[in-house]
What does this fold into?
Amino acid sequence: MDWYAHYPADYMKHTDHLSMLEDSAYRRLLDSYYAKGKPLSADPKHLLSICRAFASEEQNAVMSVINQFFVLKGKFYHNERADKEIEKAEIISQIRKTSGKKGGLAKAKQVPEQKLEQMPKQMLPHRERDISLNPVQDARLVLECRDDFKRIREVDVVLVLRNNFNKQTYKQNLEAFLVDAANQTEKIKNPTGMLRAYMSKQPAGTIKKEVRGL
It folds into this structure.
């Protein structure tokens, strides 16, 4: 990754107890983590090399940070926040690559001057045959099934679909969501939560009202 999102207030909230050496070590470890887009090798020599830690107090600072902010899984140290940010960056990259190709739904499928939520189910432009099993492409169907869904962050929709796309009921659940969301006359206050609830259902089509608070 050439860049990564840094949230100063959030960072300081979780690191204000660190010494200057520990803070420096943590930032260098994160820079390496994001630059390579993958967890850190658990080899102590590699970790110390990343931080250029030569003195004993510097080496102690590195291992202190590792113990506080990283979890050992197999032969690699994982940082939960970094893993999530890298996943989001990958999704955004996929969205940018496909947005120009797809361009949304074809104009032939669009029904002008008629709100989707007022259309009968048989007239909806989004049907199961349009669902591609590609979370990035399917996110477009979600964002376009209602005018007020344009405010949703595309990356959040992709994450929900990506977490459920290997289920046998993926298509059925997504189809049920598209139909019910488009036909719901009331404003949907938590569309991402509603989508998450639909995608987790087996079988699909059993939820008819928005699930709040997810």
